[in-house]
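Lab manual, section 2.4: Encoding a predicted structure.

Procedure: take the sequence of the chain (590 residues), apply the prediction step described in section 2.3, and record the output as structure tokens. A sample record is shown.
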Amino acid sequence: MTLPTVPPAIEPAEISWHHGVPESKQFGDGYFSCKKGLEEFRCAFIEHNNLPARFSCVSEAGSFVVAEAGFGSGLSFLATWQAWLAWGPSHAATLHFVASERFPLTSQDLKKALLVWPELGELAEELVASYPPLVRGTHRIVLAGGRVRLTLFFGDMHDAWNTLSFKADAWVLNGFEPAIAPETWQKPAISEVCQHSKPGASKAPVPSVALIGAGIAGCLLANNLARRGYVVTLIDAADEPASAASGNLQGAMYVKLGVEFNHQTELALSSLTFSQRYYAPYRDQYWHPTGLIQLAWSDTEQSRQRRFIERNQYPEDLLHPVTRQEAEALTGTSLMSGGLWFPGCGWLEPGKLCKSLAKHSGIRKVLTYSVEKIEPSEGEWHISGTDPDNPDIRADQVVICAGHLTPQLIPGSGSFRFKAIRGQVTHLPEPLINSPQAVICGARYLNPAHGLQGERLAVIGATFDLHSDEPAPTTESHRENIRELSSMVPNILSEDMAAGDLPGQLAGRVGFRCTTHDYQPVAGPLCDIEGQEVEGLYLLTGMGSKGLTYAPLLAEFVADQLTGQPSALPISLAKRLTTARMRQLKVASS
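Recorded output:
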């Protein structure tokens, strides 16, 4: 008897193979016809829906949305993607494909199934490489350099249509026969299809978007919009991108998943898996997926990890518990405990990544420009600042991505529940440390030593200073970092270093992270004091110390909102990010 799967994991499809063709044991039906499956789909869907002509007519920065009730082997998606490459417009535009799947194929079965179609080989290879782990919920997959976006929901079809936000130009329903999947043809399902449908006309694009703040959030969003064909202005007070908290030499990319699998944990998990896919093309440039260990470094953390393992089931290629001996083999260093091993995590060079993202030809950079006022005028937003060469910047939509400086830039009355947290990192030259092979996390994180700024350094981070606004590194913060690291990994430093005997001129860096009262990010339209959305004004901030993990998915989510394209997040998670909760309510005086 097959044991039930514990969330967030989802049961994979049970497959039998007949001459290379997969057949579902759950439904007793083949996924496609080996000889005519691709030809039949092209005739029944692509030609019948006149997609070549409709694709070619999509406007610049526009989109076309296809939805499918049952992703299966991905054949429909790949054939649609291939047609988009053949007949889609030459200018920037996006194909969105939204699909649900209750029993997803494993990545191994998906790869094997798609070998039947060698003409789809390159596309299939890219899909398999970006295929998400088998966990329930919504997965956004960006392909073809951003020209194609797949929103894949693992779970019940009705849950998908009730939780996803999109309007489809065309539906793929021909793969379901009433006798095999009767629920697809029931009235509620047909009603859901109608609710998510729109006429074939494409929406006119937004002419211009201005982003304030060239940190990781602003640079990711600017690049995302530019790849979709939008005109983007990226504004920052510094003379180059990533001059604030995002400019650290190294940053660990990870999240701490909750013991209970609730919406907060789901958002963290979705952000983690999306970031791993997003950063993959930058491997060995700015992204170093060395693996990452979250140590059970204290009695409290050991108890938390034990309860986490007992109550959840995750795919092993996403995370799994390891003993102390296993952790030592993975990290190449002596440890005091085991923990949770994340094989797909690692560390980034965020400053270099930001600068690379901001180089896109569709991004106009306005630097050394301190924004003083944002105000609406004649259907646009006017941004005024200190640069005489740019006395007034105009845009149809504005996104404030200014981290802890965000509250002072929001126009209108009222106060907001943001707070700044000072974080100092310490740079240790490699001779002073037994450098690990993978990232080690606990009370602090330690990255492997790497060639940075002309020498091999390892970065320890970071302090969590709620009551300090000191912008320069301090000796006391360096001592705190080293003290916490030594208690977590006693043998990682020399005896003198561990005892607090610091070498002269120990370097580091200070950044001020922006967080919120509930320690959840903010992403979406600004809400006024009455709770109504302010047209054309958005926030993207409040990610605290996990910005490297949250920012790629939240930039994708905000870009979807700005462009009116299908949302990367289900409604349940989008609600957690609303800006309305950030308003500081006034307490009536007695």
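Check your result against the sample. Residues 77 and 97 are 7 Å apart (CA to CA).
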